[in-house]
Design goal:
Blueprint lengths: L1 E3 L6 E3 L12 E3 L2 E2 L4 E2 L4 H4 L6 E3 L2 H14 L6 E4 L10 H4 L1 H9 L5 E7 L17 E5 L3 H7 E2 L4 H14 L2 E9 L5 H15 L5 E8 L1 E2 L3 H8 L10 E3 L5 E3 L1 H16 L6 E4 L4 H8 L6 H16 L1
Parallel strand pairs: 1-6, 3-7, 7-8, 8-9, 9-11, 11-12, 12-16
Antiparallel strand pairs: 2-3, 4-6, 5-10, 13-15, 14-15
Length: 310
Amino acid sequence: MVLKPFKGRFFQMCPGSPGVICCNYRVINTCFGCIYDCAYCFLNSYLNTFGITQFTNTQDLLAEIDNFISTSDGRFLYRIGSGEFTDSMMIDEVTGLGRLLIDKFKDCGNAMLELKTKSDNVDHLLNIKHKGNAVLAWSLNTERNIALYEKDTALLDERLEAAEKACKAGYFLAFHFDPIIVYPEWEKDYKSVVKKLFSVINPEKIVWISMGGFRYTPSFKEILRELFPAEELTVQEMFPGVDGKYRYLKKNRIDIYRKMKSFINEFTDKPFVYLCMETKDVWSSVFGRYYDTSELFEKDFAEYLQKTFF
């Protein structure tokens, strides 16, 4: 681990991907790198440094957050998170950043702070009294995919047990099925994951659920094969999309998302279910909603959250 001040922008818009609809998520940069070793992670090709770089100039981070809060539209609900270039909770009991951020945003009524993880590391946050609009979120996958592609992360049952603790402690929750990785039994296994999720978690506390199919940039294939010689992710039939990333065929992605949505809707229709970095026509085919721009989608998302949970 390298401890150093960050010279860039702590607070920025998620870069998204050209030609697709993005949720306009705001990203807080607190750390670069991850202790987990997920085969599909874009950090394998994005970062060129060894180990974990933990940023130490937290006062500059807090100053940028203050600037955002003071200049933002108080009528609009923003989604902000720290899990873009790291796992938000992997060593949070050491860094203390989770508690710091929750405290910073606790009185900010127009922002939801999301801390996203593949860990079960939440016990140190359960006794915080004033949680504001904090959201603890988990990336979920099938037990097969976790075993094959998410080395050193918490098991599915461990993640759900941690989510149950967070729910009982009064946090909002979110879940991310991204990337969805297809294999012969994928449909049965993902349906089982969704069923297990709702056997443990009260859907009234889930604010959003995202879905995204496995995708990768052309240069990522060689990096992936070098790091994980036995990987089977890139042997699937995949083609470049409008953003240049290789994806499952459009008709297959539509089928995947429709089925996942139906699995979720067997239990609830309250969380806002959305697609991560997908095209307008895929959105329309899955949800019957057409977003011409990412800004229109963000507006719809924010209005739903304000109407449903506040």
